């Protein structure tokens, strides 16, 4: 990947300032990334883990083999999540998760009801 352009980095810093995020609120950790990249990925700690201390949220970026680029991507994830929260919008990933949970509970209820109707005749014959 090409290095991150200066304008993008400056824009991200402006967004940080607008949200009131201080560097002291961020805790960084660098771990080995997974996926393609071969032996290089297995040897270097290029994936960035960013923990935002006020909320305890963790953002992980392993998009690139570059630690600096992954740091940028993790910061961008943080800013986007906080901006969505500030606007009162729900992130798409959370919407999808909620939908899956609703589907799962609906299926569970249907299965339970179906099993109860199948067990009812057997109980009558036993009584």
How is this structure best described in words?
This protein has 127 residues and is α+β, with helices and mostly antiparallel strands. It has two domains: 6-87, Double Stranded RNA Binding Domain, CATH 3.30.160; 92-127. The protein is built from four helices and three strands. It has helices at residues 6-19, 39-43, 67-87, 92-126; strands at 26-31, 47-52, 57-61. Strands 1-2-3 form a three-stranded antiparallel β-sheet. Helix 1 (6-19) crosses helix 3 (67-87). The radius of gyration is 23 Å and the shape is elongated. The mean pLDDT is 87.
Topology readout:
Blueprint: H1 6-19, E1 26-31, H2 39-43, E2 47-52, E3 57-61, H3 67-87, H4 92-126
Antiparallel strand pairs: 1-2, 2-3
Helix pairs in contact: 1-3
Features:
127 residues, alpha+beta, Double Stranded RNA Binding Domain, 2 domains, three-stranded antiparallel beta sheet, 59% helix
The total tally of domains equals: 2
Mean pLDDT: 87
Following the backbone from N to C, one meets helices and strands in this order, namely HEHEEHH
- Net shape: elongated
Unreliable stretches, pLDDT < 50, 5 or more residues?
none
Largest beta-sheet characterization: 3 strands, antiparallel
Structural class determined from secondary elements: alpha+beta
Oligomer: single chain
Brief characterization of the structure:
With about 130 residues, the protein is an alpha+beta fold. The chain has helices at about 5-20, 40-45, 65-85, 90-125; strands at about 25-30, 45-50, 55-60.
């Amino acid at each position: 990947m090409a290095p991150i352009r200066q304008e993008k980095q400056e824009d991200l810093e402006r967004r940080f300032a607008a949200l009131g995020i201080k560097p002291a609120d961020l805790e960084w950790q660098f771990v080995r990334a997974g996926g393609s990249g071969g032996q290089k990925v297995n040897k270097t700690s290029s994936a960035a883990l960013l923990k935002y201390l006020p909320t305890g949220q963790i953002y992980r970026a392993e998009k690139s083999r570059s630690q600096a680029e992954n740091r940028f991507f993790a910061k961008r994830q943080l800013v986007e999540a906080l901006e969505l929260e500030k606007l009162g919008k729900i992130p798409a990933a959370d919407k999808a998760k909620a939908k899956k949970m609703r589907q799962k509970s609906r299926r569970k209820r249907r299965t339970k009801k179906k099993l109860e109707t199948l067990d009812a005749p057997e109980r009558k014959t036993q009584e």
